Amino acid sequence: MTTTEDFMAALHKAESSKDPAELIALHAGDVTLQNLTKKNWEGLDGAREFWDAYLSDFAEIHSEFTHHHESGGLGVMEWNASGKLQNGGDINYRGVSIIEIRDGKVGAFRTYYDSAAFVNPAQG
C-alpha cells in the first residue's frame, strides 16, 4: 500500500473509533497541518490537536474517498464526508486533501473543503 492509502485507512479507523492514534503515527515529527482556518498546526502535538478537533466536531463522520493518487512524494485525495454534527444536524460536504510524503511519513497535510456546509448543514 502507498502512504496515501495507509492515510485513508487510518482516517477511516479514526473516524469510526474516535481515536486518531494510528493516523497521528503516520505523521513526521515536524509535520505541518492546514485547513481553511488561518491557524497552522506543527509537530506531533499539533497533529494530535488538529485530529482531535476534527473528530470532536462530529457525533459521527465517515469520509468516502472518490479518487486518490500518489506520485513524486505527493498524495492527493478527493472525498465526500457525511455524518452528524455534535448538535445532531446532518452534514454532507466534499473536498480535497493533499499530503507531502517524506520517508514514508506525512510531512505536510493540507485540506480544502466546502465550508458553506458548516454554515448551513441542511444545505450541505
Automatic annotation (TrEMBL):
InterPro entries linked to this entry: NTF2-like_dom_sf, SnoaL-like
Domain of life, source organism: Bacteria
**Signal peptide location:** none
Residue stretches making up the SnoaL-like domain? 11-106
Name assigned to this protein: Nuclear transport factor 2 family protein
Taxon lineage: Bacteria, Thermotogati, Deinococcota, Deinococci, Deinococcales
